[in-house]
Amino acid sequence: DETEFRNFIVWLEDQKIRHYKIEDRGNLRNIHSDDWPKSFEKYMKDVNCPFKIQERQETVDWLLGLAVRLEYGDNADKYKDSTPDGAKNTDNTAKNAEPLINLDVNNPDFKAGVMALANLLQIQRHDDYLVMLKAIRILVQERLTQDAIAKASQSKEGLPVALEKHILGFDTGDAVLNEAAQILRLLHIEELRELQTKINEAIVAVQAIIADPKTDHRLGKVGR
């Protein structure tokens, strides 16, 4: 708002910068005058502001910096030993601002929250709650982000696999573990095939570029 901007400039000059004598501030204080932009432009030159009047945000930032510098210069002894309010209780502030950095893993509320999430997401319990929290993060990242949900929603055509027809190559001594290992191996093979497909696509793209080079005849000639 133009009126607020002009009032702001007048306030800065009256209260903090005080570059003009009081009797010389009349033109700047007359915020409803059509000549105010000229008075403001002269004021900027007088305080050596490096910006133009059209650069409002830069001008405001520069004038505020000047005001802070002058305020500090007038009250250096008062400010040099003062402690910011935000730093008086650093521990609590840090914990509130970055709760995961200053996480108290022994806090009952933390343990209860992790356990509730683990139960909700059907994650195996572990004695170390940080391990469970990491597992929750991985699951959320891989399964519950928007991209992951969209990818999972896409229908995939496939054929049913008879696990008994696939040789595992080793025996864990437990039928359930053997079956789980077979499933993991098949999933790993699927990932390798997807990777091979991407590699093949990259090779084809490179070959297409090599097969159709853009020749610059100025660089040389073919034959004698």
UniProtKB/TrEMBL annotation:
It comes from the Eukaryota. InterPro entries: RTRAF. Transmembrane segments: none annotated. It holds the Pfam family RLL. PANTHER family: CLE (PTHR15924). Belongs to the RTRAF family. This is RNA transcription, translation and transport factor protein.
